[in-house]
Design goal:
With about 290 residues, this protein is α/β, with parallel strands linked by helices. The strands form 4 sheets. It has a 4-stranded parallel sheet, with helices on both faces. A two-stranded antiparallel ribbon has the order 1-2. A two-stranded antiparallel sheet has the order 3-4. The chain is globular, with a radius of gyration of 24 Å.
Amino acid sequence: DNRVAPGAMTNIVRSGDVIPYVESVLSSETPTYPVLCPCCQTPTIPQEVFLICPNQKCPDRIRQHLEFVYGRDCLDIDGLGPSTIAELYNIAALRNVWDIFRIPKLKNVILAAGILGDKSFSNLVRAIEKSKNVRFEIAIKCLGIENVGKSIGKKLAVLTNGNIHNLEALTYQELIDVAGIGEITARAILAFVSSNDWKEMKRNFLSELNIHATTAAEAGPLTGMVICITGNHHGYTRESLRDLLISKGATVTNKVTSKTHALICPPGFVSSKLTDAEKYGVTVHSGPHALLNK
């Protein structure tokens, strides 16, 4: 009997068919969590399943955000790891994400500080220049909008016609009509593009990037099409069908509007989406095959 009690910290191992098994109890006491950020001493706050520091000027938060933007999933700047970022932060060479583009002008300062050697510095400058050519969804991810990554970035590319500055023209309804963009994410996008952070990112960061959206040849035959799905379709779950359509370049939405190009609705299925399709003159397909085989 391991005497597991609420709040206990346990050692769990995989057992049988991925069934968690409590091997031992490390502590039966309720764990305590930091009331203050260990870096800047700002009171911490709960956010969903996380405990976060809300201070946007917190040095640890800034460094972690820089690591995220310059890392493999975003700009992918070779030779710029966490330790180098920390050292450049400490000499005030990096404090905002756009500071990376002024690094080439700080050669003497960086070499004098012993952070990089001459060859490593030259390699970093080349990597920085290379990082300026980014896909639309990568540029979106660099903005740091909550819950917005590459997948949603691709959908935003369609909504904005590949022009990242058109983000600020999007409406709440246009955003939530797209499958995969919920109310919380839509509000986060709208809040960001109305903030000073957006203005600074446009002026100092995005202006340095060569942003290119997915082309029709790269995306597939359904690029530019807005498609809605209703009902059940043999051989597909709703998610698998949505993913297939998206992989061919389509934007899949949750409702039919005047901007919808096609509705996939099985024969005899009663749906308000079918009524809306008739209202807006949207083409109705009884199954997905005609679209998937384009």
